[in-house]
Specification:
77 residues; three-stranded antiparallel beta sheet
């Protein structure tokens, strides 16, 4: 089977529901950005990055995106 250069092997379910731990991480990031080193020590979920809920800012810290903030607010309601 030949793979297209644009092929993405990562499967994304049509609807993303974060785990309790992922939601806690997003809430923590709402209060403060954390360094990549800290994120690795805390075993931050790669799913948050894959779904665009977190990103690295210009100073190299992990921060919550607007999409992540929206998800946290939706979960709190």
């Amino acid at each position: 089977m030949l793979l297209n250069a644009n092929y993405n092997a990562t499967y994304h379910a049509p609807h993303f529901e974060p785990t309790v731990d992922e939601l806690a991480t997003l809430k923590h990031l709402e209060m403060e950005n954390i360094s990549v080193t800290s994120a690795l020590k805390e075993h931050m979920s790669g799913r948050l990055y894959e779904h665009g809920l977190i990103a690295k800012n210009a100073s190299g810290q992990v921060t919550i995106t607007d999409t992540g903030r929206h998800l946290v607010r939706r979960q709190n309601n």
